[in-house]
Design goal:
Layout lengths: L10 H4 L14 H12 L16 E2 L17 H22 L7 H26 L23 H18 L3 H7 L9 H21 L6 H17 L22 E5 L10 H9 L3 E2 L1 H4 L32 H5 L46 E5 H16 L4 H6 L1 H7 L8 H6 L4 H12 L6 H7 L3 H4 L4 E5 L21 E5 L18 H6 L12
Helix pairs in contact: 2-3, 2-4, 3-4, 4-5, 4-7, 5-7, 7-8, 7-12, 7-17, 8-12, 12-16
Length: about 525
């Protein structure tokens, strides 16, 4: 499954770009590939466990962004800033020399498209964390004036990102072309990946500007719709038939995968996600996420007569959206990780919430090293981007558009109740909330939730709350002492982290602080509001 860009024998794994002699390199298409290969590994910057920044997932030690305890002295900002600009510099080193290759313009444009995708990707990492940031579009030297430049407005950063992604989409090959003509290159950036990322970025900025009181957001929402529609109409991708297998070895390179971070037994360490999901439980679902799954009649648990409550460890899983059991491991079910020896109960010393993720959890990881590719973009996201952008732009969405997006996702898992305008009206629901819910449960634990609550300006409501787990049953855990071994709320639900240590300042926490080192080195940079006080 791995392609050449992860090979430890790659030329660029041994020699940095700025140490390559232009006279001996940049001659062939292989040189162009090698000139970009090293950048692929940094597309894992959005870690699979980034949902721990939200109230949907919880790591055993907590998370400083989720709890609002991040300080300017933490390394979070420095790491994001430095890595992003390092990779943008690597892109410009490539762009300075790629045109020397003895290849056709079509070939050279393909790899220029890859390079511009990377430039857009890392400018977006900077924008979503810091807002206004310096745009860099050429190779800078130490004495250049731009090195000590000011922050560019986020609107200009977005214009640059969109321009790069559109150029990339126009010049990159389709997945089907690679599969037919260059199967050994499956895994490189394609036209579909560029368009999918464009739809993600444009939806982010369109809704961010809408809910944070900024003007001009309509154009971004329209870009998200157009980019999503182009992917949909291309016919290059479709929903895989088996949702549960998507993230397991048998789901690699299925028809839904648009881009994946690739692992190989020959040259990589084992894939972290399936190993740590099963064996270490680096992050766990919360009650907040579990409660979000609809009942099988399409109604929320607080409205549906089908909801069976929390009377047993398994009752809340009954009569629910099938994705609940495919995402969160039902206690006492087959191969449940870390279950107690007698009753299949979750081990609270391993999962403080009592829940475990089943999505991407490969039981083989207990006994063996696994090298499963990690999906970074898939077709389901495109459908959800289209649905949400359409509603946000127009204030409405047709049943036809719901059928090709939300209802296609429900049909894939066997949930028979469709989301329609009449269903929403008859049951007093909010169409926007249901579209958002669909995204939340479909893409749970895929690293997109934090961006969702930031761009919609709902983090201030969701993050400063207690992180809760399942309903505690004393008869199942006779050895645990309430108040000593386990903390409960007034209704008996496990408290993994109390509300009194969780904070969110809406005038501050929607952006991260600029790295203190950068503020010292460049006096023309100003920090984000309320971080330097």
């Amino acid at each position: 499954m791995a392609v050449s860009h992860f090979s430890c024998e790659d030329y660029l794994d041994r020699y940095p770009l700025d140490e390559i002699s232009p006279d001996s390199f940049w001659k062939t298409e292989q040189d162009l590939q090698s000139g970009l290969n090293n950048m692929y590994q940094y597309l894992n910057m959005r870690a699979w466990d980034e949902d721990v920044r939200t109230a949907d997932c919880f790591p055993s030690g907590g998370n400083i962004i989720s709890s609002g305890s991040l300080t300017p002295n933490d390394n979070e900002s420095e790491n994001i800033w430095n890595l992003s600009y390092q990779q943008i510099r690597a892109v410009h080193e490539f762009l300075d020399y790629y045109n020397r290759a003895n290849e056709t313009e079509e070939v050279k444009n393909r790899y220029r498209g890859e390079a511009l995708f990377f430039r857009a990707y890392f400018h977006y990492q900077l924008l979503r964390h810091f807002g206004d940031v310096p745009i860099v579009t050429r190779l800078l030297n130490a004495g250049d004036e731009e090195v000590f430049g000011t922050r560019d407005p986020r609107s200009e950063v977005m214009d640059q990102i969109i321009e790069d992604l559109q150029w990339a989409a126009d010049n990159l090959p389709a997945r089907s072309w690679i599969e037919t003509n260059r199967p050994n290159e499956v895994g490189r950036i394609t036209k579909g990946a560029a368009l999918t990322f464009l739809s993600r970025v444009a939806l982010y900025e369109g809704t961010f500007e809408k809910y944070h009181g900024m003007s001009g957001y309509d154009k971004y929402l329209q870009t998200a719709i157009d980019a999503s529609n182009e992917v949909i109409n291309s016919g290059e991708y479709q929903l895989a038939s088996n949702f549960e297998n998507l993230f397991l070895p048998q789901g690699e390179d299925n028809e839904e995968v648009i881009f994946s971070y690739r692992y190989s037994k020959e040259i990589d360490e084992p894939s972290r996600r399936p190993t740590q999901t099963v064996e270490v439980n680096r992050f766990m679902p919360t009650k907040y996420l579990a409660d979000a799954f609809l009942c099988s009649d399409g109604l929320p648990i607080d409205q549906s007569p089908l909801f069976q409550g929390y009377g047993s460890l398994t009752s809340e899983f009954e009569n629910r959206d099938p994705r609940m059991k495919m995402t969160i491991w039902e206690p006492a079910s087959d191969n449940h990780p870390q279950e107690g020896e007698s009753q299949g109960e979750p081990v609270l010393s391993v999962s403080p919430t009592g829940y475990y993720f089943k999505k991407a959890a490969d039981y083989n990881a207990y006994q063996n090293e696994v090298f499963t590719d990690e999906i970074k973009m898939r077709y389901a996201e495109v459908l959800l981007n289209y649905a949400e952008a359409t509603y946000e732009l127009n204030g409405s969405i047709s049943d036809a558009d719901l059928d090709k997006t939300v209802n296609a996702l429900r049909a894939r898992v066997g949930m028979s109740v469709e989301l329609t305008n009449s269903f929403v009206s008859a049951n007093g629901l909010s169409m926007l909330n249901e579209i958002r819910r669909e995204r939340r449960v479909e893409l749970a634990a895929e690293g997109l939730r934090y961006d969702d609550i930031i761009r919609r300006k709902t983090a201030e409501d969701q993050l400063p709350q207690a992180i809760k787990g399942f309903l505690f049953h004393q008869d199942v855990y006779p050895e645990l002492v309430v108040g000593t071994d386990v903390q409960l709320d007034g209704d008996g639900f496990v408290i993994a982290q109390s509300a009194d240590v969780r904070f969110f300042d809406p005038d501050k926490n929607y952006l991260l602080p600029l790295p203190s080192q950068q503020l010292t080195l460049n006096p023309n940079l100003e920090d984000n509001p309320n971080w330097s006080n």
